[in-house]
Amino acid sequence: MCGIVGIVSSEPVNQQVYDSLLLLQHRGQDSTGIATLDGDFFHMVKAKGQVREAYRTRDMRNLTGNVGLGHVRYATRGSAAAEQEAQPFYVGAPYGIILVHNGNLTNTRELTADLYNVDRRHLNTNSDTELLLNVLANELQAGISGLSLDKDQVFGAVSRLHERVEGSYAAIALIAGYGLLAFRDPNGIRPLVLGRRQDPQGQDEWVVASESLVLESGGYEVVRDVEPGEAILISPEGWMYSQQCAKNPRLVPCAFEYIYLARPDSVLDGISVYDARLRLGDVLAEEIAEQLAGIDVDVDVVMPIPDSARPSAMQVAQKLGIEYREGFFKNRYVGRTFIMPGQAVRKKSVRQKLNAMSVEFKGKNVLIVDDSIVRGTTSREIVEMARAAGAKSVIFASAAPPVVFPHVYGINMPSRKELIAHGRSSEEIAAELGADHLIYMSVEGMNRAIMAGQDHVTELEQSCFTGEYIAGDIDAEYLDWVEETQES
Ligand SMILES: O=P(O)(O)OC[C@H]1O[C@H](OP(=O)(O)OP(=O)(O)O)[C@H](O)[C@@H]1O
Ligand SMILES: NC(=O)CC[C@H](N)C(=O)O
Ligand SMILES: [Mg+2]
């Protein structure tokens, strides 16, 4: 779940791309990159770490041009530490293409072999994004006859790419001399939103980004989400063309975007993330009431684990008629722990990030709400902190169902062993966490909550809860391979 943005403007885009990446920082903290297109030339800067530390003034000055794109990375293939895997990726032929990608390809072994054996293409990293770019380049090359490129040839290349590539991909590319191309996988697993505004002369300026908050902040109107399988081509002069390039497109957005990944002030595929989290809280409250009915405990306070659990916890408190309190103070200078690379860093960061205030815990039965429990890194530490702060009993509730299967579409949960819910009953997990009771949202409840009140999205990508993988052939052998080869 990286963050991507692409902009076609009538003025230099470097600052706008930078500002957009700052707004998408919650989607990736490993590395970042910006590329611009100025006439026939690309300019590119990539660096490890977060946006604020990555770019110097002289880097920004060199990023000239009115067309550009940017990326913040949360590695899901290859390594978070590998500088050469930072995005964007570049190929010199045909024309010169630069690409950024949010998602994860699942047929990387086949693509790697075909790109070498059939297409004679060299890959220099373990990144699946480099594969995606090379497939695009290869299919563009295969579709051109003369010197120049037209929109039908571009859309034809994306159609062939959809036939070859499996997994999830929301991608933005710059093609030298031709402008910006954006496309979304045929299941629309990862988000991509299109926005437009007009410059003072009435010329259209365009943005494509992972989340709608980028559009709002830049003064763009939200035109629509890019459809699953669709490709959008925008010329440097602001002409926009679009075409459905997939044979059987189907909208199945990732449930985890609504639960944790996206910012609450974004609207993805017509569903407000904030509203979805409030509704998750409503449904969770019903499920908590049912499960606590037979247990002799009077809950004194409901508390969120900041930040992502706040909207759900507020609703739980309101629906159950229990006081809402913030018992954990969050250090605003520590990033999101779940998307940090390596368990040791994640564990240490939870303690640096959150601290319990004893006044809210002493002698109380506390109901702690988090949006999700994945490895249990956060919840383990939190329960310990709550007890150390004097809590009489700790009830833990998760607004997402138990995560029991690896995520292969763009969230780095490659191994079943590391998932605290894998192979354990609720009681066993509660014991692992040290909680007195543990309540999980049901899969049915999660679906009902996220998709309520609209009929545009009728199914969610929820493989990490159910084991039903919707894109590509995901079998036991594949999951074993991911487990062996991917760092977590
Ligand atoms: O069970 P775990 O493996 O610990 O993963 C789940 C936790 O990680 C996330 O928080 P994070 O600190 O990343 O971000 P937040 O501030 O947005 O809640 C999420 O909100 C849970 O708190
Ligand atoms: N989270 C993502 O979207 C990551 C994109 C790509 N798979 C990478 O590892 O760089
Ligand atoms: Mg959290």
Automatic annotation (TrEMBL):
<keyword id="KW-0479">Metal-binding</keyword>
<dbReference type="InterPro" id="IPR029057">
    <property type="entry name" value="PRTase-like"/>
</dbReference>
<feature type="domain" description="Glutamine amidotransferase type-2">
    <location>
        <begin position="2"/>
        <end position="237"/>
    </location>
</feature>
<keyword id="KW-0460">Magnesium</keyword>
<comment type="function">
    <text>Catalyzes the formation of phosphoribosylamine from phosphoribosylpyrophosphate (PRPP) and glutamine.</text>
</comment>
<feature type="binding site">
    <location>
        <position position="370"/>
    </location>
    <ligand>
        <name>Mg(2+)</name>
    </ligand>
</feature>
<dbReference type="InterPro" id="IPR000836">
    <property type="entry name" value="PRTase_dom"/>
</dbReference>
<feature type="binding site">
    <location>
        <position position="308"/>
    </location>
    <ligand>
        <name>Mg(2+)</name>
    </ligand>
</feature>
<dbReference type="GO" id="GO:0006189">
    <property type="term" value="P:'de novo' IMP biosynthetic process"/>
</dbReference>
<dbReference type="GO" id="GO:0004044">
    <property type="term" value="F:amidophosphoribosyltransferase activity"/>
</dbReference>
<dbReference type="InterPro" id="IPR035584">
    <property type="entry name" value="PurF_N"/>
</dbReference>
<keyword id="KW-0808">Transferase</keyword>
<feature type="active site" description="Nucleophile">
    <location>
        <position position="2"/>
    </location>
</feature>
<protein>
    <recommendedName>
        <fullName>Amidophosphoribosyltransferase</fullName>
        <ecNumber>2.4.2.14</ecNumber>
    </recommendedName>
</protein>
<dbReference type="Pfam" id="PF00156">
    <property type="entry name" value="Pribosyltran"/>
</dbReference>
<dbReference type="InterPro" id="IPR029055">
    <property type="entry name" value="Ntn_hydrolases_N"/>
</dbReference>
<dbReference type="Pfam" id="PF13522">
    <property type="entry name" value="GATase_6"/>
</dbReference>
<keyword id="KW-0315">Glutamine amidotransferase</keyword>
<keyword id="KW-0328">Glycosyltransferase</keyword>
<dbReference type="InterPro" id="IPR017932">
    <property type="entry name" value="GATase_2_dom"/>
</dbReference>
<feature type="binding site">
    <location>
        <position position="371"/>
    </location>
    <ligand>
        <name>Mg(2+)</name>
    </ligand>
</feature>
<dbReference type="GO" id="GO:0009113">
    <property type="term" value="P:purine nucleobase biosynthetic process"/>
</dbReference>
<keyword id="KW-0658">Purine biosynthesis</keyword>
<comment type="pathway">
    <text>Purine metabolism; IMP biosynthesis via de novo pathway; N(1)-(5-phospho-D-ribosyl)glycinamide from 5-phospho-alpha-D-ribose 1-diphosphate: step 1/2.</text>
</comment>
<dbReference type="InterPro" id="IPR005854">
    <property type="entry name" value="PurF"/>
</dbReference>
<dbReference type="GO" id="GO:0000287">
    <property type="term" value="F:magnesium ion binding"/>
</dbReference>
<comment type="similarity">
    <text>In the C-terminal section; belongs to the purine/pyrimidine phosphoribosyltransferase family.</text>
</comment>
